[in-house]
Amino acid sequence: MEASRDPWAARTRKGGHVPMSEMVFGAVPVLAAVLTGLFAGLFLSFSMAVMPGLARAGDRAMIESMQGINTAILNPLFAVVFVGAPVAALGSTALYASSGSLRPLVWSGAGLALLLAAVVVTFAVNVPRNNSLDQAGTAERLRDPAAVRAAFEPGWVRWNNVRSLASVAALVCSVMALLPA
Would you say 165 and 109 are in contact if contact means Cβ atoms under 8 Å apart? Predict the structure, then answer.
């Protein structure tokens, strides 16, 4: 890349280093985009593969699988992505607000709002359904697994699709915030 087109060239020529504040300003929005991509990918994988695959399973197998997934997903990596994406998006939005850069601020703010919408859907709909499924008991002991599945699956899938769309849109917004005007 030519020095005149390299955004870091002028800064590095003058003192041989990039100030820490500028590195943070550049890194936080990129981190927000990466974490948002992982966040969106998680929910989208349920929409594209996990739930369609489980739809082909019998009632007991589907219930047992979802109960296992609901337990397995509560891990440190999930926490980093699920909490980190909105926190990084908030940090990115705050940095853009402090810089006075309107275009990336609007994109970043929209991405943050969409991420928060996905989080609200998760806590308002998907987690309560997960909890109800767990409280129903183990799949092999259920008297009517078809009824348990019917109470869980359609709404869970529908709202997972909503949070998938919101988080993919959030990813688009966070990438748009990174692009030059």
Answer: no
| CA angle at 25 for the pair 20 and 30, rounded to the nearest 5° | 120
- Residue 13: inside a domain: no
Enclosing domain of residue 114: 20-178
What is the pLDDT at residue 26? 81
Q: Is residue 4 part of a domain?
A: no
Evaluate whether 129 touches 155 at the Cβ level (below 8 Å).
Answer: yes
Confirm whether 162 is domain-assigned.
yes
C-beta of residue 63 within 8 angstroms of C-beta of residue 145: yes
Domain count, the chain: 1
Q: What is the pTM of this model?
A: 0.87
Q: What b/e readout covers 99-122, taking b as 16+ CB neighbours within 10 angstroms?
A: eeeeebbebbbbbbebbebbbebb
Contact 62, 149 (CB under 8 A): yes
Give me the mean pLDDT over the 30-58 stretch: 98
As given in the structure block, the two tokens for residue 60 are 């007991």
Distance from C-alpha of 167 to C-alpha of 114, rounded to nearest angstrom: 6
In a domain, 11, yes or no: no
Q: Where are the beta strands (DSSP E) in 53-118?
A: none
* % the chain with pLDDT above 70: 87
